[in-house]
Amino acid sequence: xxNRHLTTAVAKPTALTHPESLKNPAGPSAFAKDPANAGLTKxxxxxxxxxxxxxxHFEQRCIRTYQQGKIGGFLHLYVGQExxxxxxxxxxxxxxxxxxxxxxxxxALMVGMDMNSCxxxxxxxxxGCSKGKGGSMHYFAPDKNYWGGHGxxxxxxxxxxxxxxxxxxxGLKGCCLVYMGDGAVNQGAVHEAYNLAAxxxxxxxxxxxxNGYSMGTSQERSTAHPGSxxxxxxxxxxxxxxxxxxxxxxxxxxxxxxxxxxxEKNRPTVLEIFTYRYFGHSMxxxxxxxxxxxxxxxxxEEKDPIKLWEKELLNEGVLTDALVASINEAAxxxxxxxxxxxxxxxxxxxxxxxxxxxxxxxxxxxxxxxRGTIIFE
Amino acid sequence: MPILSYREAIRAAMRxxxxxxxxxxxxxxxxxxxxxxxxxxxxxxxxxxxKRVIDTPISxxxxxxxxxxxxxxxxxxxxxxxxxxxxxxxxxQIVNNAGNIRYMSGGLINCPIVIRGPANGGTNVGATHSxxxxxxxxxxxxxxxxxxxxxYDAKGLLKAAIRDNDPVYVMENTILYNDKGxxxxxxxxxxxxxxxxxxxxxxxxIVAHGRAVITSLKAAExxxxxxxxxxxxxxxxxxxxxxxxxxxxxxxxxxxxxxxxENKPFCGxxxxxxxxxxxxxxxxxxxPIGRVxxxxxxxIYSKPLEDVQIPSPARVVEAALKVLA
Lengths: 377, 325
Description:
The complex is a heterodimer. Chain A has a single domain, classed as Rossmann fold (3-Layer(aba) Sandwich), CATH 3.40.50. Chain A contains 14 helices and eight strands. Chain A has helices at residues 4-7, 35-38, 42-67, 82-89, 105-110, 115-122, 156-169, 188-199, 219-222, 248-265, 293-302, 305-316, 321-344, 359-362, and strands at residues 97-100, 146-149, 176-181, 204-210, 213-214, 217-218, 239-244, 269-274. The longest helix of chain A has 26 residues, at 42-67. Chain B has two domains: 3-182, Thiamin diphosphate (ThDP)-binding fold, Pyr/PP domains (Rossmann fold, 3-Layer(aba) Sandwich), CATH 3.40.50; 196-324, 3-Layer(aba) Sandwich (Rossmann fold), CATH 3.40.50. The N and C termini of chain B lie far apart (41 Å). Chain B is of the alpha/beta class. Chain B is built from eleven helices and 14 strands. The interface between A and B is large, with 56 and 59 residues.
């Protein structure tokens, strides 16, 4: 009798289980003429490039700041996965919302959070997007429909389902994108969210950003079903699809289908988007035990989503080498300025430790419902 | 004044708040068609319809998390847990998400969710269904916890909880559901964090919450009748926020204190109350603070023994006499 869970317990580099057909096919995207993309202007396409470049340069600047010892705690980088956040979020409308896990910087920049407050948050500064109280894993911008930034794997899935429920309850035509990693699919909370979303016809799109590894454990060592993770949707009667996360056109096209389904039928979807991260699970991961350097190199050189989009747009005559250079220069400059801003910003005051805990306490008055001691010595 | 049961008082609070605010919805296992496992939500589906009174699958992490997410967008969900013991499978949602999101977002998001249901032992159902997690949950800044002992307080506290903009966890007691008391028809709330002197006295202060208040009131009658002792019973009503002033005022009056709760003793609510009293009223004390809790073991199934495990009037009387000695 064989037990592959026992026999594979020794860590060794294992090949990704991404289907071959979804690994980047070189050449023009089959989705360039998709209805979701047909209406894109040249300026729109350049903007998508710029947004991916900004994320990359921000993350690369974070590495430097981390190495300088200015960022504590965990730092989960999005480098390599940029087309997922940019592609999916670029098709949303004003009543559409999102929530994600701890690899949350890319989504934050894409929805319009500014680099300064994001960088300051990483340094624990008072000017950070969460006043230095959240850190890398806990970015929030409810004014931009961005509900975090959640540290516990899969814990955001029920929350996002609740956001979708609230939209439906209020009669708004919108949906909620719930991002998670491939490691989240084995969490009970995710399955409970799937069940509720399907049972109650909720406009939610679960997006599995499958970068192949849940921390240091490959999909084949963590997940019983050898096939696609999205296919589990069938058990809940949900639609699902597989997406090449290295092709921005494809990400947009397939997300748009799911958004339409949510808006028009209030039905959930599971999208599994194949992607890859170039750095360790977090900066604390030396990244030496579970995957080959050659594998990383292969992705970087042949399937980089930004380079592929760049190539696509150069072929279309939308981008020029000069424009590419200036966009990257500007993004790097913006990231450097953000680091300077964070450096120059003050830390939060000691008094602020006990603020922002309770709404009723921060707003005590004749109309508040609470009295008595709530913060204890 | 109308007489309502504790169960009816809770139902009245939900009805009134649902009429007042269309964002209030009720969710939980068996709350709608079945009329509630303990019939607390009886009739609400008929009155408000399936869009506002919603049966959930047995999926606490899922539906409580869904309620937390919905509350961030302004829905005011009143989630029923059939037992607070079941909160343990939804702990991440209840503590990490509801309790932390305001703080971690630097005050950008708040979470006006209410989670309610019974949290008590004494019903002969064994350890898994008999937890009293008020101290454990109140240990997390960001969370509010109330434990009503009477129909009046149950209605007023629940109405306050539904209007409150923070997560409020209301811990009820199945043994109290049929208790009756005066409950006004007119709109009122009991502010969260205000204790209530349920019985005035001069010789001894008993501080209690939840059903332990009822037990302590019975003990106070025995102490007066059989021992000529005048006992003051302070009902905390709310665990967090906590009404320190009412506790300390009573200590300054009687100079002797007995703490009674149905929790297990280790890190119980009374551990914090005892700390506050010794730190702020040390010179007022004429005797060490006494304490009665449940006997420190998982809840025993066997009914005669469970009745011994939970504080009884007899045990409270015995402990009171020691503090008075």
